[in-house]
Amino acid sequence: MSGDLIRAIVLLTILLAIVLVLAVSFGTVPISWSDDAARTILLRIRLPRVLLAAAIGATLAVAGVTFQTLLRNALADPFTLGVSGGAAAGAAIATAFRLGRFPGLVPLVAFLGACGATAAVFLLARRRDHTDPTRLLISGLVLNAFFSAVILISFSLSREADLTAALRWMMGVVWGARWSEVIMLSSLLVVAMIVLVYVANDLRLLAFGEEDAKARGVNVERVKLIGFGAASIITGAAVAVSGIIGFVGLLVPHLIRLVWRRDFRFLLPLCAIGGATLVVAADLLSRILVTSAELPVGAFTAILGVPFFLLLLRRSR
Amino acid sequence: MIEVRAVSYAYGDSSAVRDVSLTLGEGQLVALTGPNGSGKSTLLKLLTRVLAPQSGEVLFEGRPLGDWPAKEYAKRTGYLPQDPDPAFPMRAIDVVVSGRAPYLGRFSWESVSDWEEAERALALCDAAHLRDRYLDEMSGGERKRVFLARVLAGTPRLIVLDEPLAALDLSHVQQFSLLLREVVNRTGCTVLFAAHDLNWASAHSDRMLVLQQGMLALDATPAEVMTAEVMRSLFGFDAETVHVGGKTWIVPSQA
User: Fold this and answer.
1) In terms of DSSP H, where are the helices of A97-247?
2) Least buried of A87, A276, A302, A305, by fewest C-beta within 10 Å?
3) Lowest-confidence range among A132-136, A147-151, B31-35?
4) ipTM score of complex
């Protein structure tokens, strides 16, 4: 591994640590080990929430940079592609059919939704060796509209008692986080990262185009399958836990590239740490700005993300 | 070194390469020419394993391409596509060192010797000063040299270049052609390049292959190709020849 990368990782990790400490410390109840109630709040509520936000941020940023490399397009992100929407639609359908009673079933259906959306992106936006940004965005728009409709239909079929849970898929929230969710998502992320690092050399060559990568000895079809599969699975898992949190996968690789304009092997770990930092910070900010209610962090990342997205759109060919 | 045996390839119904057979030896600088759509790019892709022949076979060092492990074959060949375009901004040196990728194992990074090879290739292409510049800040000629350095960094025995002279101005065409000759002389590898400009292709090659509608119409020395008869029969225009500096140049006749 190169010295540059180690320095960048250390730098971003320090930033993440600072944001984590701030996020855990901030709240109406001051943290304290001696006080029982305060300790319970810390361990049961605040810590899982902050760590879940970190895991979701890392997951979405990793999925984003992977989609961008595979599609050779900086506008790709789980949300703009409609992959998050597909996962949310899957989760909403599962909720309507009351599958929440069986553990693991809702994330599974969410993952199937994510895979369906990825396949649709393939069919709609890809032309031979490259992805046309216009087609990419239009197909994302259409898919998101379709999935919103599916989610609304599922809502009307859901029982009243399930509606609050169902609303989560649309809003993108990290409150009420459970340790089991934190553990599920972070272990999936670790596995996905290992898989992605395994094909990182190949993915980095794919940035030069598929034919070029083939001539360099890359098994392009296999790498695409692995890359899209890994990115879809983790997107599905993140959405199943927290609903749609948009633009993280777009924003983070973009910000990282502003500082480190390097290849995929470099960007992957930096995006993971940067994504964790961004979502924890966004959640902290929403708690600081509005103390009377719980703001959905997804709305916050969207407010941050939209201007960046428009900027990227202006610049793209 | 490489032997093409009765290879054909079609995109759907439209046939691109038809029943082509040829052999390339060590240390040759070979130009592949032919009118637009005559199958030049497709033939180059068949030699670099980007495409697999639908019939016939290609042998490298006596072994069919399909039997070569992909990375092993990639170590021995270098391919420069017509319009290489990395999706994201990259430094020249990062582009060049990516030519070492077939030598890397899983989970591994370039070693000191990989970086040295990249620096050497960059210097050979007279592009050492571009090392830390970004591709999107370079001229077409500078980019071409960086990409040739990327090909050379892989220390290939066979180099395949698709229209390397396109989009270069005349002084860069001259420079780049001399560079190709130097590479062949220095490393003893074989270079096959596609070019539609006959005058330059002939001036800077030892041998010319002419494709016509996917078939190998002529395999001869530049002097044999550069005649009025060949221009009329294979390229479809009337021409006169001019002899300057020991080379033959084609000039289209006034209608």
Assistant:
1) 105-125, 133-157, 160-171, 179-198, 200-206, 210-215, 220-242
2) A302
3) A132-136
4) 0.88
